[in-house]
């Protein structure tokens, strides 16, 4: 399976340093830059022969995928709750300074860190692995587009490149807004933690 992963365009929250997670209010909407980015990435992907499209059901991902889909008429778009960003619990909606974001980044991928009572990285890995495994089984010989978020993009990268769960923080970079990552997946191997 050829997997094309795209992170959504910039949101009001991204621009203002707000922890979004699964938050889908004003801060979770694409801003003017994000809309332009979505149109640009759609143009970059217009010649790809995409067979199936999957997206997080959060607005920022949906709005990005709908721009891309304008060049891929007739392909069903599956909007999936399972492809949502990591759940940050009580931290969602909090605004952080650049320094606070840098400090948080140092611990965000520690296996037992549960931000704001939300999901651990292991729980996110397990959620994304299950849905990616299902997508893979349905599309072994296809080209698939997945539009989502920074955290889940890190997990998709780790799964696709067979990087162990405890190495994600050090070996997988965060996807920037509308960054494209392309993977050729021959098999999926679970390298997570079943806890």
Structural notes for this entry:
The chain has helices at residues 12-16, 32-44, 59-69, 98-107, 121-138, 150-160, 168-171, and strands spanning 2-7, 52-56, 77-80, 143-148, 180-184. The chain is of the alpha/beta class and 195 residues long. It has one domain (2-139, 160-184): Rossmann fold (3-Layer(aba) Sandwich). Helix 3 links the parallel strand 2 and strand 3. The radius of gyration is 16 Å and the shape is globular. The model has no long low-confidence stretch (mean pLDDT 95).
Map the helices and strands:
Elements: E1 2-7, H1 12-16, H2 32-44, E2 52-56, H3 59-69, E3 77-80, H4 98-107, H5 121-138, E4 143-148, H6 150-160, H7 168-171, E5 180-184
Parallel strand pairs: 1-4, 2-3, 2-4
Antiparallel strand pairs: 1-5
Helix pairs in contact: 2-3, 5-6
- In helices, the fraction of residues equals 25-40%
Strand content: 5-15%
CATH class: Alpha Beta
Instruction: Output mean pLDDT.
Output: 95
Oligomer: single chain
What's the β-strand tally?
5
Uncertain runs: none
Key descriptive features of the protein:
195 residues; Rossmann fold
What would a concise description of this structure say?
It is built from 7 helices and 5 strands.
